[in-house]
Structures are given as structure tokens and as C-alpha cells.
Design brief:
Layout lengths: L1 E5 L9 E7 L6 E2 L4 E6 L4 E5 L4 E6 L6 E3 L3 E6 L5 H4 L36 H10 L17 H9 L34 H16 L2 E9 L1 H18 L6 H14 L6 E3 L2 E3 L6 E3 L1 E3 L2 E3 L2 E2 L7 H17 L4 H4 L4 E5 L18 E5 L3 E7 L2 E15 L5 H16 L2 H5 L2
Parallel strand pairs: 12-16, 16-17
Antiparallel strand pairs: 1-8, 2-4, 2-7, 3-6, 4-5, 6-8, 9-19, 10-11, 12-15, 13-14, 17-19, 18-19
Helix pairs in contact: 2-3, 6-7, 6-9
Length: 415
């Protein structure tokens, strides 16, 4: 009897997803709760666990199909236990179900590494494995429960390959077809569900909000000096690097206390003010930019902020962020500086009313006490919904951040 595999509940207000990849193929052994498919929602990729042990049966949906919550996408046939259960009998006592008069050829035993949690590959990892023609069972996973991460597979791809014996050299690969002179090629790739959602939401933000951006610059000398002085002690005590985001999140919390409209949102004809700061921090993931939320940032220490963001970044690359971690948020910080951006006008993330854009640090000539000196400067950009936030409030918010970052002692004594 076959067991139906249904699309699980995906989260509040999410009614469908896109089938991103099949992690098991018909005929493959399946263990209970083992991931067999990956679904792409508006925010993250979600793995579908097997509701029963057995053998992968029919697949009722194709990669790229949109599937609704509760829809049947596959079947698992009874029997055909996973490989580790089949190997329970010792090799020295084979059993012939046809009796002693029949010859029985022993089946080839699966390799030792042919099973395990690290072979449940995320779509990004599976793509790299296929591109580089790698055997995932030969790669050591460093992710949760030994799973393979993108960095694990890239490291294996870059590692030197052992030379084949001289007696049996591998056949040379066929030469690539020469490109014709003047040939122009095109490739069409379907947008991921996440990319479609990002495009729709950004356009909605432009259509519905009165977005304006104001700028300021910050002398990062004090922050850089503090990091240089305490980074070793900080890492030794907390086991995490002291980065810039801790300073910016704390400065944003301090400024939002003085200018609460920046941390508010519109709900119809009402303004919703928050006495907490839930910061959506933009991090890079294989499927695009995602924004997990640092909850109650105003109450967190530098170490707690840095640990939370580092964990988000690691799990974004592995594709293991949850929907709950992506939902909510009252204010967004986006650091385009890590990619080299000098200046930008970020778009707000509805229903939030403001987003702070960080940029790269570069030495520029500035006037200090009547002297022209070189200082490490960063441009800050605050995009905001002018329906809720006035220009005076936006400028005041950036000035408060500038004051806190140029004199980090203010962060400790709440000035």
C-alpha cells in the first residue's frame, strides 16, 4: 500500500510553493522523516520529510510546478526498507529465498558513505555537485548533523584530483564545439519563487509608499579603533568576531528611541509604534538576498547581536533558515558595502517604514579643526516612507547614528 506525500503547512498566509528539487528518485530507499523534496516559498526553501519508510514511488509533480498546501506530490511504496536496514544480515550468511537448488548472486553492498544526513542536499549544493561531477559521499560535511554545505562542496571541487594510474589513463574529454564567429547566444532561466516575490514586493513598495532617501556620512575612525583594540579579547571571550553590524544595530536602536517614527508602520489610517526594535538584516544566500530578523535588538549585547547575525549568515548559505526567522521585523539594515557599494538608495521592506543602507569604508579628505586630513568615511542612506516620517525626523535619525558611531561611548551611556 502506498503512502501519500503531501505538501506540508508552510507558514502563516502561505498557501502554495514551487517544487524546487526532488531529493529522492523513484526506486530509492526512503527512511521515515528523511527529506525527499525541496519546496521554494516566497522566503525560504523547505524540505518535505517522508511520512513513512519504504521505497520512493510515483512523483506526481515536476520541478518548477506550483503546488498548494495539502496537495499530493508523490507516493512512498511499502517495503523496500532503507539500505542500512537491508544490510542487517551478515555477509557471511546469505539467504536464498528460492531455496538451495537456485544459484544466488550476492548484491553489491552500498558503500559505507552512501547514506547519512549529509547526503540530503540543498538545491544550491546539489547544483554545484552536478556542475563539478563530484561524488557527495566522498565529501566530509561540516553543516548541521554532518550535512554538506556550499563551502564544503566548493572546497572539494578546488582540491587537487588524484592522478589515475599510468596503465589505465582516462579517455580525454571531447573538445568543446568551437563557437561560430559572431555567434550570439541567449539563455532563458525561470525566475525562482523568491526572486518573483522580491520583484513583486519591491514594485508594490514603490507604488504604495512615498519613498524618499536622505544621506549622511560617518567618520569610522572611532569604531575601527575600538575593533582593533578589543577584537582579540572579544573573540577569546565570546567565540565570535567583533564586526561592524553590532555597532550599527546598537546605534539604530539608540536613534529609534529618539525618533520612534522610523521604527513604526502604517496600518490603514493608524500608526503602529513599537517599543522594541526587530531588525531585519539582509544576508546573502544561494537563491538571493534574504532578511532574517534579529529580535529585540535594543536589549541585546554586542556579542549576542554578532552571534545571531553570524548564525543567520551561515544558515542562509546552507538554506536552513526557517520561515519564522524571516517574518516580522520593524526596521531593516542592508550592508551593500561588503560588495563594494559607495552609495545607494535602498527600497523599504513593507510594512516597515524605513531601511538603512550601509556602504563601503574608504579614506577621503575631510576638514578637522581647520586641517585637511584623511579619514575612513562611510556614506549612510536612510530610505523612508514620507507618509509617516518627515524629513526632519529622517535627518535627526541619521544624525543620532552619526554621533553614536563617531563616539561609541554614547552607546554605553545611552546619549
Amino acid at each position: 500500500m502506498a503512502t501519500e506525500v503531501k505538501v506540508p503547512t508552510l507558514g502563516e498566509s502561505i498557501t502554495e510553493a514551487t517544487l524546487g528539487a526532488w531529493l529522492k528518485q523513484p526506486g530509492d530507499p526512503v527512511a521515515l522523516d528523511e527529506p525527499i523534496a525541496s519546496l521554494e516559498t516566497d522566503k525560504v526553501a523547505i524540505e518535505v520529510p517522508a511520512p513513512a519508510a519504504g521505497t520512493m514511488g510515483r512523483q506526481l509533480a515536476k520541478v518548477g510546478d506550483n503546488v498548494a498546501v495539502g496537495a499530493v506530490i508523490a507516493e512512498i511504496e511499502a517495503g523496500g526498507a532503507p539500505a542500512k536496514e537491508k544490510a542487517a544480515l551478515p555477509e557471511s550468511t546469505p539467504v536464498n529465498p528460492k531455496g538451495p537448488g537456485e544459484n544466488m548472486e550476492p548484491k553489491e553492498a552500498p558503500p559505507e558513505d552512501a547514506e547519512g544526513p549529509h547526503l540530503t542536499l540543498s538545491p544550491a549544493v546539489r547544483r554545484i555537485v552536478l556542475e563539478h561531477h563530484l561524488d557527495p559521499s566522498k565529501i566530509k560535511g561540516t553543516g548541521k548533523d554532518g550535512r554538506l554545505t556550499k563551502d564544503d562542496v566548493l572546497a572539494a571541487a578546488e582540491a587537487p584530483k588524484p592522478e589515475a594510474p599510468a596503465a589505465t589513463p582516462p579517455p580525454p574529454p571531447p573538445p568543446p564545439a568551437p563557437a561560430k564567429a559572431g555567434e550570439r547566444r541567449e539563455e532563458r532561466v525561470r525566475m525562482t519563487r523568491l526572486r518573483q516575490t522580491v520583484a513583486r514586493r519591491l514594485k508594490e513598495a514603490q507604488n504604495n509608499a512615498a519613498i524618499l532617501t536622505t544621506f549622511n556620512d560617518v567618520d569610522m575612525s572611532a569604531v575601527m579603533a575600538a575593533r582593533a583594540k578589543y577584537k582579540d579579547l572579544f573573540e577569546k571571550k565570546h567565540g565570535i568576531r567583533l564586526g561592524f553590524m553590532g555597532f550599527f544595530v546598537k546605534a539604530a536602536a539608540l536613534a529609534a528611541h529618539d525618533v520612534p517614527a522610523v521604527n513604526a508602520s502604517l496600518d490603514g489610517d493608524e500608526i503602529v509604534y513599537h517599543d522594541y526594535l526587530d531588525v531585519s538584516v539582509a544576508v546573502s544566500a544561494p537563491q538571493g538576498l534574504v532578511v532574517p530578523v534579529v529580535r529585540d535588538a535594543q536589549a541585546l549585547s554586542f556579542a549576542e547581536i554578532e552571534k545571531t547575525i553570524a548564525d543567520f549568515g551561515k544558515r542562509a548559505k546552507e538554506g536552513t533558515l526557517t520561515l519564522e526567522e524571516m517574518q516580522g521585523g520593524t526596521f531593516t539594515i542592508s550592508n551593500g558595502g561588503v560588495f563594494g557599494s559607495l552609495l545607494s538608495t535602498p527600497i523599504i521592506n513593507p510594512p516597515q517604514s524605513a531601511v538603512l543602507g550601509m556602504h563601503r569604508i574608504e579614506e577621503r579628505p575631510v576638514v578637522v579643526d581647520g586641517q585637511i586630513v584623511a579619514r575612513p568615511m562611510m556614506y549612510l542612506a536612510l530610505s523612508y516612507d514620507h507618509r509617516l516620517i518627515d524629513g526632519r525626523e529622517a535627518v535627526t535619525f541619521l544624525v543620532r547614528m552619526k554621533e553614536a558611531l563617531e563616539d561609541p561611548t554614547r552607546l554605553l551611556i545611552d546619549l
